[in-house]
Model the fold of this input.
Amino acid sequence: MRVGIGLPATIPGVAGDMIVKWAVKADAGPYSSVAALDRLVYSNFEPMVALAAAAAVTRRVRLMTSILLAPLRSGALLAKQAASVDAISGGRLSLGLGLGGRPDDFTAGEADMGSRGRRFEEQLATMKRAWSGEALGGGVGEVGPPPARAGGPELLIGAVAPAALERAGRWADGFIGVGGPKAARGSYDAALDSWNRAGREGAPRFVAAAYFALGADAEGSIERYIKDYYSFMPQYAGAIISGAPSSAGQVRDLLSAHEDVGVDELLLWPCDPGLEQVDRLAEVLEK
Done:
């Protein structure tokens, strides 16, 4: 099982150069990916911009959004942004997408939350056409640049609801699970069923994610950040806090649990923006 690390781009107060330093250090370490989260109404860096910065200073790691809230954006513009990052990075983008569930994000983004599922389907079709070099239709021509990967960057979908899981099986190259290992596996199985019913070959890639912090104030860092980021869902925040590892042993247990349910790649999101977190986690992974 591969292990990726989240960039601290969603932790309030982080300086821009820290994102670059994290990416450089992760690229030199045991990590498979660096990743960026998405929110609109929060003090975070926009994920595609953060990954473009990471693309410029890395050569090996993949660049992942996990997840980007697609319905807040134009489908054609998102296709262009994704193709640009993919081309700049030499084909290293994994575009993780989802619907989003915060009403304030949709209000700020001037998007209709009630129709986000239908809009997402339309965006997926638009992006696939753009990445294949087709005209978008209706008098609109080709949208470039061409991505480095034929047909577009790797597309991952994060989902929980049945309709969204169905969509992941039909459209995506992989699935991003949420919750603990067992919950993520249950959702993945539903996406896999959709994949098989669509007559697709092989199986979707299985990605999961969890939060972590290591060091003297690890538990405090986890509690402070999660309570702030998930302030709109306090009950959910409590479950995340209780499941986030704060010691080397807990990290190893978490890795083992995800490996047992068949996860291909686990993303570990930092709750502490200190650059030493990259080294501390690497030490656990390398033992």
Notes: The longest helix spans residues 181-197. The chain has one domain: 2-286. The beta strands are 2-6, 33-36, 62-69, 93-98, 135-137, 140-142, 154-158, 174-177, 205-212, 265-270. Residues 2-286 form a domain with the TIM Barrel fold (CATH 3.20.20.30).
